[in-house]
Amino acid sequence: MRSILKTILLGFVVFSVFSCNRYRPSRNTGPEEIVEQFATHFLDDDRIHSVSIAIYYNGKESTFHFGEQNPGSNNPPTDSTLYELASVTKTFTGTMVAKAVLDGKISLDDDIRKYLPEEYPNLQYDGE
């Protein structure tokens, strides 16, 4: 499930960078260099302080982290960093759950809380 999220997130970031910017990486560069070029360019925007990008290329998964979670705090993002994606979060979550249902990993009748790492009592109504 985590690799699905990383793949979706990477696709979103790459799509966002390509569609919102006219920036293009140098030709004849490897995937790691392209990720670094995009991340560096992405972080040039003062509104953005950190970015994490995961790629799956030639059978190898790689994760890259850039910037700081809180500017001036020397706290770079990690594999455990959670990013708020605003309304897009619902789309990612729905896509991941739909994929898990199709893969037979969860059922539409399951209580989603059983897959979460901690208790979320606010996700119940009348005891369900």
Characteristic key phrases:
128 residues, alpha+beta, two-stranded antiparallel ribbon, 3 helices, 2 strands, extended
Task: Give a concise summary.
The chain has 128 residues and is α+β, with helices and mostly antiparallel strands.
Tally of DSSP helical segments: 3
Strand order of the largest sheet: 1-2
Cα-atom radius of gyration: 17 Å
What characterizes the major β-sheet?
A: 2 strands, antiparallel
**Cα shape:** extended
Describe the structure.
- The protein has 128 residues and is of the alpha+beta class.
- The chain folds into 2 domains: 1-81, no CATH class; 84-128, no CATH class.
- It contains 3 helices and 2 strands.
- The protein has helices spanning 2-20, 31-42, 88-102, and strands at 50-57, 60-67.
- The protein has a two-stranded antiparallel ribbon with strand order 1-2.
- A hairpin with a 2-residue loop joins strand 1 and strand 2.
- The two termini are 25 Å apart.
